[in-house]
Design goal:
Blueprint lengths: L1 E9 L3 H12 L4 E4 L15 E2 L12 H8 L7 E3 L5 H12 L3 H28 L11 E5 L2 H15 L6 E3 L1 H7 L9 E5 L3 E2 L2 H14 L3 E3 L4 E7 L2 E7 L2 E10 L5 H7 L7 E11 L9 E3 L4 E5 L3 E10 L8 H14 L12 E7 L6 E4 L6 E5 L5 H16 L17
Helix pairs in contact: 1-7, 1-10, 4-10
Length: 415
């Protein structure tokens, strides 16, 4: 016997739950399937940053040179596991083609626009739903240890300022007065006052609770295995807990989305990029706001009872194993920048797979070959930042309403 649904969403992370919320608000009945617990994968222990100012796509001029310099150092911010993988080779070539100034500028303008819209929506969502998720808008401080890196950061910031981003450039003395948690050998910093942060797992789970309270159905430990396509529609969804049917189907399961699309003959340019985090609970001294340890590409987020350090971008396929060298690199960055001597993390290291398209923009699209199938993935490091915007846009698409913005930058077939 099948389980009938109005809208069935595959994936219970930030994007899937945000979409479920806005669809439910529009009057749809929603069912969410999640193969683990709610807020799994990259939604669980990431940095929790809402950073609309930082809209320069991952594919940008100069990043190839940095990647070549880092890729053979297992403690560096970036690493590619050597292997013969045709999908990876194709993705790297497409990534390279998107590292041109014109493509970067177009991506930046799009991400900045939707990022600030999403920040306003997040503020309203947290307040209107009384979500207990440690939401704060304290800005984000990017710290630099070397004059060369600081000069590069200033150049990048001036580019962003020329496009309306608010930022303050601080020298060493002003940096240490502003954030005494940093070590005294810091060279300078740049402060972005509009950025916010929250506890990502608490945000997703509390929003999921609201959905269930209002009649939504959430099936955890239910793995979707196959989508049965008949006459241009998804007629059945096969899971390890039985069959489901739905009027509309939405795929939001991040790096796992390509598995369904390949079976339907719809290839997708997406690579899982592993990120890691470690947490330090109950520190006697904490930073007053989120930090970014710029040379090491490590984000630092203070929560109510712990400090989280998150970083690295590792292209090693669908592999969630913890590499101790990557964890050591994050710890090393923390002690280089901050007063962490003697601090010991007591929680288990975490790793999640961030879905990365080659141009740095998410995929938010109907699947034209299947009339009741929709897709949203590829948010890379901006899943929390863009969750409300994406969820609302998906509600418009599934309700066959005119979307609030041009969908071309988010199309599946744009690569």
């Amino acid at each position: 016997m099948s389980n009938p649904s109005d809208v069935l969403i595959i994936g219970g992370g930030a994007i899937g739950i945000a979409a479920a919320y806005y669809l439910q608000e529009s009057g749809r009945q929603v069912t969410v399937l999640e193969q683990n617990e709610i807020a799994p994968g990259s939604s669980f222990a990431n940095a929790g940053l809402i950073a609309p100012s930082h809209a320069i796509p991952l594919a940008s001029p100069g990043v190839i040179a940095d990647g070549l310099r880092w890729m053979f150092d297992k403690q560096s911010p970036f690493y590619i596991k050597p292997r013969l993988d045709l999908d990876l080779i194709s993705w790297i070539w497409k990534f390279y083609r998107n590292c041109r100034p014109a493509q970067m500028l177009a991506g930046f303008q799009t991400l900045k626009k939707i990022g600030f819209e999403s920040l306003a929506m997040m503020q309203h969502l947290v307040e209107s739903e009384s979500l207990n998720c440690d939401f704060q808008q304290q800005g984000w401080l990017m710290a630099y240890r070397s004059p060369h890196a600081f000069a590069h950061g200033v150049d990048e910031t001036q580019f962003m300022q020329s496009h309306g981003v608010e930022a303050q450039i601080l020298n060493q003395q002003d940096t240490l007065s502003f954030e005494p948690f940093l070590r005294e050998d810091i060279h300078g910093s740049i402060f972005f006052p509009k950025e916010a942060h929250l506890n990502p797992s608490q945000f997703v789970t509390t929003l999921a609770d609201r959905i269930q309270t209002r009649g939504g159905s959430i099936h955890t430990h239910t793995q979707a295995l196959e989508l049965i396509d008949q006459n241009g529609r998804i007629e059945r969804i096969i899971t390890d807990q039985g069959e489901f049917t739905a009027e509309d189907v939405l795929i939001t399961n991040g790096a796992w989305a390509h598995q369904f699309l390949k079976k339907l003959g719809l290839p997708i340019a997406l690579q899982p990029a592993k990120g890691y985090s470690i947490s330090f609970p109950n520190l006697p001294l904490m930073p007053q706001r989120p930090l970014y340890l710029s040379e090491d590409k490590v984000a630092v987020t203070p929560f109510t009872n712990h400090l989280r350090l998150a970083g690295t971008l590792e292209l090693s396929g669908m592999d969630l194993r913890i590499d101790p060298q990557r964890i050591a690199g994050i710890k090393k960055a923390g002690t280089r920048f901050m007063q962490l001597s003697g601090a010991e993390e007591t929680t288990e290291p975490w790793a999640g797979l961030r879905p990365c398209p080659p141009d740095g923009l998410p995929i938010i699209a109907p699947i034209s070959q299947v009339q009741n199938l929709f897709l949203s993935t590829g948010h890379a490091m901006m899943g929390i930042t863009l969750a409300p915007f994406t969820g609302n846009l998906l509600a418009q698409l599934l309700n066959r309403q005119a979307p609030s913005m041009n969908l071309a930058p988010f199309a599946l077939d744009r690569f």
